[in-house]
TrEMBL record:
Region (Disordered): 343-374
Residue positions of the active site: 48, 187
PANTHER family per UniProt: INTRACELLLAR PHOSPHOLIPASE A FAMILY, PHOSPHOLIPASE A2
Superkingdom to which the source organism belongs: Bacteria
Protein name: PNPLA domain-containing protein
Motif (GXSXG): 46-50
Position of sequence motif GXGXXG: 14-19
Motif residue range(s): DGA/G: 187-189
GO molecular function: hydrolase activity
Keyword Aminoacyl-tRNA synthetase among UniProt keywords: no
GO BP, one annotated term: lipid catabolic process
Length: 549
């Protein structure tokens, strides 16, 4: 490498279908005079869906081609989902086939550009020559052409450079639950779903001065997570399964996972989302930028609803403008005209590691308020006003009636000494459906908020109070989705009335509570299709009841 030339890194993180946003950002960056950006980049690094992007770029795919991939065949792939939790949601063989179509059996050592793909090997048992069974411990894996010298081998640094690019890319994207493992290799998220820091380390290891390294990370959307409960007295059960708080923002991480696992989300997402960019910024200062637009709510890795696809493209085209401008400045000030790889003098060693090349591809607790159950924390036994963001009105059971079929309306928030019973709401967990709740008014424990069944699909089914079906009727079950402005929420119904024959539950935009009219003075609550682009008419805040009331 020319000592006067900068070592430039483009890094792509994990996120499934949200890679569409990464591809859109890349296209946005690759406008003239940077339309040859990929060729001008020294090193490409990827994890999970970022490894698939990296693999496609190594094969010559243009950013527009990546967008067409994510809006075309990837949607078809994700819609064809196995919904049984005891087998992978999707067949790895299909992914392997598509990657072989790109690269054949070309190894990482001949990638044509400096590259890093990250994965994790779960370990195994092996048999010694004397017949003794010996464990092979699990370990992180790097597939790179920047490790391979004799000194690297002596230091125990293996780049697995003889592994086919197709196998490496699939290994990096083999998320448990979603896809089967590849030779015991699973998703690089267990390494770290942001590979940028590892890429910087490889450059330094190969003699590149830190001040010559420049990096841009392209994310798949920042979706903040948090636990709403007081965790001071949690044991293994709560850390593994949560405690059923509707205000938690730790969605199930794995496909076909029935309930959240806070410890899993913390380990796989908590460090990558913020810590990796912070560490890279410490190392490189102004020579590092992370473009990662904030998404308005959680978008599952296999979401294919038109709303989600449009949202990802919109945020890719215009999101995170401040960091996008900083990235453009890096391209202008640091990116060279061309970047020959620095690994051309490294001869890849024989593959003696654990990666095989198969012959064929198969805080202190809060005091309880007067309206909460003893010892309650938010979401556990506490009653709230549910206030509409756009109008300021609250959900109200019409005229305090307790008969089934009573409509739910929008109304001014009551003040003492007026009765509050028809405006105060409590989450009651569904035992049969972890992660879903009944919304029960203080007025009566026998009736709950219900999305009315319609004989034909309706664009705005009404919301009424009906007798609780303890078996867990989907039209009576609700969950919260945080909006982009923290403290406001979509209230999502489990029922989906769209008539489509897809096994992927995230292919359909859900119904959430919105505002309708029945010709009466007070607007009524109805189910409306979630619209990420216009959230105020369907956003809600949960207002605590002052102690005086």
């Amino acid at each position: 490498m020319d000592p006067n030339q900068n070592f430039t890194i483009l890094s792509f993180v994990g996120g499934g279908i949200r890679g569409l946003m990464s591809a859109t950002i890349l296209q946005r960056l690759s406008q003239p005079p940077y339309d040859t950006l990929i060729n001008q980049t020294t090193m490409l690094a990827g994890c999970s869906t970022g490894s698939i992007i990296t693999s496609e770029l190594l094969a010559g795919t243009k950013p527009q081609g990546l967008i067409e991939l994510f809006t075309g065949s990837e949607i078809g792939f994700y819609n064809n989902m196995n919904d049984k939790p005891d087998a992978p949601a999707y067949p790895m063989i299909d992914v392997l086939y598509s990657q072989e179509q790109l690269h054949g059996d070309t190894p990482v050592s001949r990638a044509g550009k400096d590259v890093l793909l990250v994965s994790f090997n779960v370990g195994a048992l092996k048999t010694n020559p004397d017949g003794r069974v010996v464990p092979k411990p699990w370990d992180t894996l790097m597939f790179t052409n920047l490790l391979g010298t004799e000194q690297d081998q002596q230091s125990g640094l293996d780049g697995n450079s003889s592994t086919p690019i197709a196998i490496a890319a699939c290994s990096s994207g083999a998320m448990p639950g979603q896809l089967g493992s590849v030779e015991g290799n699973v998703d690089g998220a267990f390494f770290n779903h942001d590979p940028t820091l590892a890429a910087i380390c490889l450059a330094v290891h190969n003699g590149v001065p830190l001040e010559k390294i420049v990096a841009i990370t392209i994310g798949t959307g920042l979706m903040p997570d948090w636990l709403a409960s007081d965790t001071a007295n949690w044991g293994a059960k709560q850390w593994m399964n949560g405690d059923g708080n509707p205000f938690d923002n730790t969605p199930p991480f794995l496909m076909n996972q029935t309930q959240p696992s806070p410890i899993l989300d913390m380990c796989l997402n908590g460090t990558s989302a913020n810590m990796m960019p912070r560490l890279c910024k410490m190392l490189l200062g102004d020579r590092y930028v992370n473009i990662n637009p904030r998404l308005p709510c959680f978008i599952p890795e296999n979401s294919t609803s038109p709303q989600a696809i449009n949202l990802l493209q919109r945020h890719g085209e215009s999101g995170d403008p401040e960091n996008f401008e900083k990235a453009q400045a890096l391209l202008r000030d640091y990116w060279p005209k061309s970047c020959p790889p620095i690994n051309t003098t490294i001869s890849p060693p024989p593959n003696t590691g654990g990666v095989k090349t198969p012959a064929s591809v198969p805080s202190k607790p809060k005091a309880a308020t007067s309206n909460a159950a003893p010892g309650a924390t938010p979401g556990h036994g506490e009653f709230f006003f549910i206030q509409h963001k756009e109008s300021g009105l609250v959900l109200d059971v019409y005229k305090e009636q307790t008969a089934p079929g009573t409509p739910v309306i929008f109304y001014e928030k009551h003040k003492a000494p007026h009765s509050l019973a028809n405006q105060l709401w409590q989450f009651v967990p569904s035992e049969e459906n972890p992660g879903w709740w009944y919304l029960q008014a203080q007025l009566s424990s026998d009736i709950v908020l219900t999305l009315a069944d319609a004989p034909v699909p309706s664009p705005a089914p009404v919301i009424t109070m009906e007798k609780k079906d303890r078996a867990g009727k989907p039209s009576q079950l609700w969950s919260l989705i945080s909006t982009e402005e923290l403290g406001w929420w979509f209230i999502q119904c489990k029922a989906k009335f769209a008539r489509v024959h897809l096994t992927n539950p995230d292919a359909i935009s859900p119904f959430v509570i919105g505002r309708g009219s029945n010709g009466q003075p007070d607007p009524i609550a109805v189910g409306v299709t979630l619209d990420y682009a216009a959230d105020e008419p369907m956003s809600w805040g949960f207002m605590k009841v002052p102690d005086a009331q």
